[in-house]
Fold this sequence. Notes:
By secondary structure, this protein is an alpha+beta fold. The chain has 2 domains: 1-58, no CATH class; 60-96, no CATH class. It has one helix at 35-48, and strands at residues 19-21, 24-26, 32-33, 74-76, 87-89. The strands form 2 sheets. It has a 3-stranded antiparallel β-sheet with strand order 1-2-3. A two-stranded antiparallel ribbon has the order 4-5. Strand 1 and strand 2 (24-26) form a beta hairpin. The longest helix is centred in the middle third of the chain and has 14 residues, at 35-48. The chain starts with 18 loop residues before the first strand and ends in a 7-residue tail after the last strand. Mean pLDDT is 71; it is low at 85-96.
Amino acid sequence: EKSTSVTCHICGKVMASNRRHRGLYVCSCGWRTQADINGALNIYERAYQVSPMKGSSGRVARPAVVSYLLGWHGVAEPKREGKPLRASVLGCLSIY
């Protein structure tokens, strides 16, 4: 996709200099991420007219541990008060 790797996903500023070196994207608005992630987010937003990052504070209300042992669709909650991890299978993982 044209310009996706040099366009800031958060503010929309298009500057080739934002891509500092292979693998790092830094914008004056404060957005800093892996360059391919920035490009992928821009492509996702163009395709679906929604961004998984915009409007998010980045805070997680209830963190979960995703274990590779559970497979792609498994989520294990952190151990609490000596209780073992409880695993549940989800249809898909969502960032919302």
